[in-house]
Amino acid sequence: MSNVSRLALGLALAALCHLMPAILPAAIAAPASEAASATEAQQPPALTHAEASAELKRLQTEQDRIKQQASDPDGTTKLDELDHELHKLDADVDKLSAALTPQRAQLQAQLDVLGPPPSDGITKEAPAVVRQRAELNARRLQLDAQLKQAAESKENIANLSGQIARLQRSQMKDQLALRSDSILNPQFWKPMVSPAAEDRARMAAFLDQVVPMVQLAWQPSQRAATIALLLLALGVWLLGKRLAERALAWFCLNKLPPTRLRRSALALATTIATVATTGLAVQIVYNAFTRNYELPPDLMTLYGGLVKLTLTSALIAGLGRALLCTRHPSWRLPALADPVARAMKPFPAVLAGLLLLAGTLEQLNRIADTSVQVTLLGRGLVSLVVVLTIGAALLRANRVRNELAAAGEQPEARATLAGMIHAGVTLIVIVSMVALLAGYISFARFLTYELVWFDIVLCSLYLLTQVTRDLFESLFSTQHASGQVIKQLFGVDDARLEQAATILSGIGASLLLLLAVVALLTGGFGTTPADLVNSLVTVLGGEKLRSLNIMPERILNALVALGVGIWLLRTVRRWLDGELLPKLCMEPGLRASLITLFSNVGYVLLVLLTLSLLGVRWDNLAWIVSALSVGIGFGLQEIVKNFVSGLILLTERPVKVGDMVSIAGVEGDIRRINVRATEIQLGDRSTVIVPNSQLISQNLRNVTMSNSTQGVASLQLTFPLNTDPEQLRDLLLDVYRENESILDVPAPSVMFSQLAPNGITLSVTGYVGSPRIAANTRSDLLFEILKRLRAAGISLSVPQSLRLENMPPFGPEPERALAAG
């Protein structure tokens, strides 16, 4: 290269360097301007401060209008339209926020270019820069306030949308509680044939969550493992159940003592095996589809509901197989005739399967949030399945019983409680069917679900109660090793072991009964009684009732508690009277007193519990206490006095049932001590009612209070002075000794009690086995003494006296007869 060329190249490079500051910003600005133009084309147009304020004011006005319409007391507002308007307002708020946010960012960028004001106090800025920074800060504060107001509006819209959703659910509950189409109406079945577009869309959205899970589990790489897990679940459910039942049956027959415990334990083992294998199979199916997939919240909720429904259905089938026990009739726990048990065999499994299918449909409706018509269809199917299955089982069982009666065979004996339960179930089935035909679908669904839940709880209570009683009887039986070990370890006799078995079995049965009551009141399949009653009362004007503190759910709970409490008190009273107290070797009088005291205290506590469930507050009962005080001062004084006296009689026990008493000329045996009065049975089998206060305040003669089984008869006879006293003594002793009622120990005795001018008086004493036979014994002695005195030629002096210990005198007739003799 020549020098000239080098010189030209250097000049060109120098010129390019000088021109670079001007060319480079233009080259960069052109693409940047193009990108900014594209960005501005995508962003919403900028809004002025006045436009943004006007839009915010409009949004607030629309919110107030929707809120006012939603709180319309007439209830004529269409909540769906308000919800749609809220969604539009929410979209408008988003547009406003999207328009204001870039302006806020642009202002912040301009402020960042200007930078903060100088802080040294020396550097001076141009007035234009200071003015521009102040304007930018003021505009930024306005935009911040508008963005904050937009965020508050969005939050208020979300809260208002939630309130409208709750109102929609409340209206839906009210609609479900009211009358709808009957199951005989084709409109009721229309959603099954041609569902609405809204329901199809919701079910499609739900299926969009299910299809990816199934597709992932059915991929070629996962298909073999999925099929293997499904086959494993089927094998566990079918084959595993049989193997588990056989293993548990072998354990019950070979390891348990040969008592009734084998039967009850075998029934419990059958139920546990059915439920456990079904639950394991469901878990395996769940793992087959979700081992590589995380379920969304809706599917997790559906899975939880299906697991509960499946285990409940398995429990129904297991209880049916365990209690009917058609393969081994001798192992059957309930007293069912074998033909009746065979006739009812298929119904528990059929009910469990149909309930599982219908309940799954209802769960899908709940998760997909379908319309009211589809929800009613699902509830109607569930109710119809339960009604038809249980009704067919009742009809078939009754037909078999009638056939047995016509053939001359005796059907199974049925207790009163079992008959009442059978009648109640039949009545509920009939009422549910009538409700389905009349269009009260939710009411029928409530009745049928509660009927199934009641049957489950009742059968479980019966099975567990039998297992508990048989377990304690076998555990404390001296015929088995466990009872012998307990006897040697604690040094107790056979009677104490029997008492311990009775007490523990009673406590176990009481706890199980308490759990059953809690399960009935708090558990169940679907709508609780309180929910259904609240829905109906809300439609009928429940707010007025609530203003008067009248809560339907409290009344229902109080009535249930009162009925169950009365039945429980009577059951425990029969158990105490028939099982526990006789085994404690208590006398009849003490047993009667304890049972009466238990009943009185139990009924008082039951009344207090019922008032508490009704919501009665004791600090608001001052007027009742005042009224009672006035009433006690006037008309209720005697009643309260007799009541308190009755409690004293039951606690101090100066008299008890079975005692022989004499009060105010009334003599007889105490048969019952009630709260107000005591019943005394006389010798002629008549009954005298004596107020309890008289037994406390008056003089009372209790012949048998000392618990002595002996009575004392003492006769005083007066003879002439010329009579040989030794001859009289021998004669009287011979008469007493020869009488069969007079005891040898203590021996009868004769005492010379008086020497008077009119003759000598001898007292003869003898003991009998009971005070109640003393009168008859005295009569026999008098006949024999008069006979022998006449034979010996000995006369009696006048007057004569006769005294019988532990018995009141019978009047002057015997003395006149003796004097006449």
TrEMBL record:
Coiled coil: 133-170
Domain Mechanosensitive ion channel MscS: 639-704
Bilayer-spanning residue ranges: 224-244, 265-286, 306-325, 376-395, 416-440, 446-464, 503-525, 555-572, 592-615, 621-640
Keyword Transmembrane: yes
Start and end residues of each Mechanosensitive ion channel MscS C-terminal domain: 715-795
Signal peptide: 1-26
Main location: membrane
GO (cellular component) term, any one: plasma membrane
Keywords associated with the record: Cell membrane, Coiled coil, Membrane, Signal, Transmembrane, Transmembrane helix
GO molecular function, one term: mechanosensitive monoatomic ion channel activity
Ranges of Basic and acidic residues composition bias in the record: 57-67
Entry's localization field: Cell membrane
Region Disordered, residue ranges: 57-79
Membrane topology field: Multi-pass membrane protein
Domain DUF3772 per the UniProt entry, residue ranges: 147-209
Superkingdom of this protein's organism: Bacteria
Family to which the UniProt record says this protein belongs: Belongs to the MscS (TC 1.A.23) family.
Name of the protein described by the UniProt record: Small-conductance mechanosensitive channel
